[in-house]
């Protein structure tokens, strides 16, 4: 469940509405994003335009080099989804979890406030995310989040826990007195839609 982030800028589109972006480099090498022969990999693009965030899932990124010009061609069979976490249904959780900051091996405690199919919000203690009076997290940082949800098995009557792991690209940080609310786009996760549906079903049954 690993996630890598690379940043680029938009160049333009041609008459067939095919988009082009500037090259990405690693160790001064022009990165090849060809994953056609790799199992379990996927490429997603999060793009910002006119203060809106668009999410393109499972795209194809073609590396092109013409003389001195280098760029990528973006192939996608679906339009990008406008991500607006304020209007999307959010499931309140308030469960304990852990969060891993960029370029760190340390996991910190957090509280998973709520989740939607495309976004998540967590509370992180200021003692963890503020060092020397400076916030160690920034917008567009990618963090990893893990949490568990328990339920009572009808047959064994024992509590069983389902574990969830995901990556989030931070889109907003709200600092409070004791902690900070960190919210963003889910970019690498499994079964979140099933989690939301199951939790709604259980709560409706209880009520």
List the topology elements.
Layout: E1 10-13, E2 19-21, E3 25-26, E4 29-30, E5 45-49, E6 52-56, E7 60-66, E8 69-75, E9 81-83, E10 91-100, E11 107-115, E12 119-125, H1 126-129, E13 130-131, E14 134-135, E15 142-152, E16 159-175, E17 179-189, H2 192-206
Antiparallel strand pairs: 1-2, 2-8, 3-4, 5-6, 6-9, 7-8, 10-11, 10-15, 11-12, 12-17, 13-14, 15-16, 16-17
Summarize the structure.
The chain is mainly beta.
Notes on the protein architecture:
- The protein is mainly β and 207 residues long.
- It has helices spanning 126-129, 192-206, and strands at 10-13, 19-21, 25-26, 29-30, 45-49, 52-56, 60-66, 69-75, 81-83, 91-100, 107-115, 119-125, 130-131, 134-135, 142-152, 159-175, 179-189.
- The chain has a six-stranded antiparallel β-barrel.
- A hairpin with a 3-residue loop joins strand 16 and strand 17.
- It is globular.
């Amino acid at each position: 469940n690993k996630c890598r982030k690379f940043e680029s800028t938009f160049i333009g589109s041609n008459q067939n509405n095919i988009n082009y972006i500037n090259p990405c480099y690693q160790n001064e090498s022009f990165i090849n994003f060809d994953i056609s022969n790799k199992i379990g990999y996927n490429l997603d693009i999060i793009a910002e335009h006119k203060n809106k965030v668009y999410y393109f899932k499972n795209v194809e990124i073609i590396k092109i080099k013409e003389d001195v010009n280098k760029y990528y061609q973006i192939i996608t069979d679906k339009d990008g989804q406008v991500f607006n976490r304020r209007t999307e249904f959010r499931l309140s959780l308030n469960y304990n979890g852990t969060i891993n900051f960029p370029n760190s091996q340390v996991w910190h405690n957090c509280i998973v406030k709520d989740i939607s199919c495309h976004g998540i919000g967590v509370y992180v203690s200021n003692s963890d995310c503020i060092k020397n009076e400076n916030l160690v997290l920034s917008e567009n940082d990618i963090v990893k989040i893990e949490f568990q949800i328990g339920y009572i098995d009808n047959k064994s009557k024992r509590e069983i826990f389902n574990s969830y792991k995901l990556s989030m690209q931070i889109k907003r940080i709200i600092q409070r007195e004791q902690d900070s609310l960190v919210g963003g786009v889910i970019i690498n996760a499994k079964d979140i839609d099933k989690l939301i549906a199951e939790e709604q079903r259980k709560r409706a049954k209880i009520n």
